[in-house]
Amino acid sequence: MSLSAKDQDALVSLAFSINNNRGAYALLLGAGVSVPAGINGAWDVLMTLVAQSAAAEGAEAPADPEQWYRDKHGKPPTYQGFLAAMARSQEERQRMLRPYFDPTERDLKPTAAHRAIAQLVKSGHVRVILTVNFDKLMEDALNEVGIHPTVIETPAKLGKGLSPIHTLDCCVIHLHGDYLSPAAMLNTDDELGGYVPELESLIKRILGDYGLIMAGWSSVYDQALRELIERNYPGRYTPTWIEPYAQSAVASDLLVHLKGTLVQADADESLGFLAEAIASIAEKRGRHPLMISTAASMAKRELSGQRTSISLHDIFHQELERLASIPEFTLPADHSELIKSPGYEGGAIGAATRAAEASKVAATIAACLAYWGDETTDRWLFDAIARFSTPMSTNLGPTLANMSLIAGQALFYSAGVAAVAGRRWDLAVKLLKIRRPRPGLRDVVDPVEPLLRTPGPMQVGELRAFKVLYPGLCEALALGEETVERAWETFEVFRIMHAIAIAPGVEDGLTNVAAASEAFDRADTARQQAGDADLETRIKRTGERDEALRESHAARRHLGANIVVYGLHIQTASGANDQLYCPEAARLASDAEAMGAIAADYPGDARGFIDGAPLVINTLVSDAAEMLINPNGFHPMSFMHPRWLDEERS
Q1: How far apart are CA 430 and CA 465, in angstroms?
Q2: Are strands 643-644 and 571-574 parallel, antiparallel or unpaired?
Q3: Chain mean pLDDT for the chain
Q4: Is the pLDDT of residue 611 over 60?
Q5: If you count Cβ atoms within 10 Å of the first and of the last residue's Cβ in the chain, which end, N or C, has fewer?
Q6: Looking at 324-426, which runs of residues are DSSP E strands?
Q7: CA–CA separation, 644 vs 621, rounded Å?
Q8: Which residue has the higher pLDDT, 17 or 640?
């Protein structure tokens, strides 16, 4: 039975809750967890014992033991009733049942479910395990991973020597005893009718203090336990019931009463999936996907009022405080301490992955503030981006020192893209002017430039800024994927244009760009007009045109020498003379409102800037694209198709 999408969603939600509330959940295991190991369930044990009873009475082995019992006794057999009739004492019942659970008599090994639970105990996510099973497979699985639990299989162990449950690393409680403890095994109706006061008190405390995950437990034969759960489970945590088959009426009624979630799959698959999901979340230190949706909805709701919301201010800043305190942003400079730090687990890639995940909720709120906010909320953004724009200790090396800039990049891009999407061009320019003092470093183009200049994990694969933030932006802005991607590209180009506008010597640089471009146009026209001339003339004109083209690109490169383009989410295309260019630069240059916001910081004639800046961008983008395709600078014909600069190098 494979997990349905609904069941996977339920288990992922549970995984986030368990990871965020370590040790807060208890497991209740029934026979369905142990059956895959070869242990018989209560019904199978009953049918075997009925068949043995028939043989003892001299009857042929019945094909249908249940029907044989009905015919002989006039009623259907029950597990509790049959055991009470066939073995009058607990010791006799223990001897009768022991062969079904003793691994020395049968080859019994822990199941995938047992081992998944053991991994959750080892990682500190689960500490309390209740079981109605007589076998010791749960303890065996724990021993396999080096965990030696406190085991309570008899009421005698509930005395004063038992430490409080919450202080134990792991506790396994056999509610109905185990196969080695005849005096504690509960099998008959009388025995299962209630628990001794000490055990009942413990069950109540666990139900009151822990969330509940039930697996492989039918509940049909356990009336006393059902009633305790019904009366004492407070519902602080939504209970989850893992059961592959249709629930009995009593189980279904209990689930409805608890307002719980049913995962209709077997314990091996469900608990295996759950353990893997928790391990993945813990590795990334991620937030629940619903947190992004909730954050976006909350921010939009708060921003729809007449006044700036105080609660939104507090929520945003609380999220920033949480973000600032994650281990990846507080790495120790001492190497011996660094390698032991939880923030450095998995090296730079692991740290960057977790930092990017941790930044998503704050980035989602930032996008909403930029799109729907005002001058008051804009100041929140400026402060937040500046806060995460300072590298950490330089003793860590450039990659780790820039780790905190991952959050700055997330906030910066989310706010910038949202501002562009909302045509808040003045805000976009203000974001580009954010500065934070960096002792010993020159002033930078914008807050994320050091991250772009330093080769590291944020420039490749799944950690590229667009890849990380795009889903959250789509969720926050609800403008459609294509619109959000266009806004991202526009912001990238807008950012480069603003960098050109404030570049040192920009007026003279653009004058040189214009002159070189005009020289190329003249040379190109002369080459075309030489089409009917002799070969020597055509070669000469072509050489002059190629030289003019090189000088034109040189002028553009000189002006954009300090501007980082490689790795940005910008699309290229092939134009005249197979020259690569940036279509978005030409489109943005035709947007008077956008260019007016940028040109306000340009010291010279706006017209010259509007004409020249796209030419500079075309050359910068072309250079980056050619290096993306071939480090030697040759671009094959396959590059004629549009390509993004943040794609993986071919």
Answers
A1: 21
A2: antiparallel
A3: 82
A4: yes
A5: C
A6: none
A7: 10
A8: 17
Contact between 493 and 584 (Cβ < 8 Å): yes
Any idea what the Cα angle at residue 231 is, between residues 230 and 236, rounded to 5°?
80
Tens of pLDDT, residue by residue over 304-349, are 765 556 678 888 888 899 899 888 888 888 888 888 888 888 888 8
Buried b or exposed e, range 116-143, using 16+ CB within 10 angstroms: bbbbbbbbebbbbbbbbbbbbbbbbbbe
Per mean pLDDT, which range of 95-104, 159-168, 196-205 is the poorest? 95-104
Determine the straight-line distance between the first and last CA of the chain, rounded to whole angstroms. Answer: 41
CB 147 within 8 A of CB 138: no
pLDDT of residue 491: 94
How would residue 634 be classed by pLDDT, with cut points 50, 70 and 90?
very low
Instruction: Report how far residue 185's alpha carbon sits from residue 132's, in angstroms, rounded to the nearest whole number.
Output: 10
Q: Which residue has the tokens 């002059």?
A: 544
Instruction: Give the position of tokens 């400026």.
Output: 382
Q: Where residue 82 falls among pLDDT bands split at 50, 70, 90?
A: low
Q: Evaluate whether 452 touches 567 at the Cβ level (below 8 Å).
A: yes
**CA–CA separation, 43 and 78 (whole Å):** 8
Quote the DSSP letter at residue 29. E
CA distance 560 to 621: 11
Q: pTM above 0.70?
A: no
Q: Please, which residues have CB within 8 angstroms of residue 449's CB and are 6 or more apart in sequence?
A: 564
CA–centroid distance for 615 within its chain? 41
| DSSP 8-class letter at 342 | G
Kindly list the strands in the beta sheet with 171-174, ordered across the sheet, starting from the edge strand earlier in the chain: 150-152, 171-174, 126-131, 25-29, 211-215, 240-242, 261-263
Question: Which residues, 6+ apart, have CB-to-CB distance to 166 below 8 Å?
Answer: 23, 127, 209
Distance from C-alpha of 416 to C-alpha of 385, rounded to nearest angstrom: 11
Closest by CA to 68, choosing from 82, 80, 54, 58, is 54
Q: Give the CA radius of gyration of the chain.
A: 35
pLDDT at 64 over 90: no
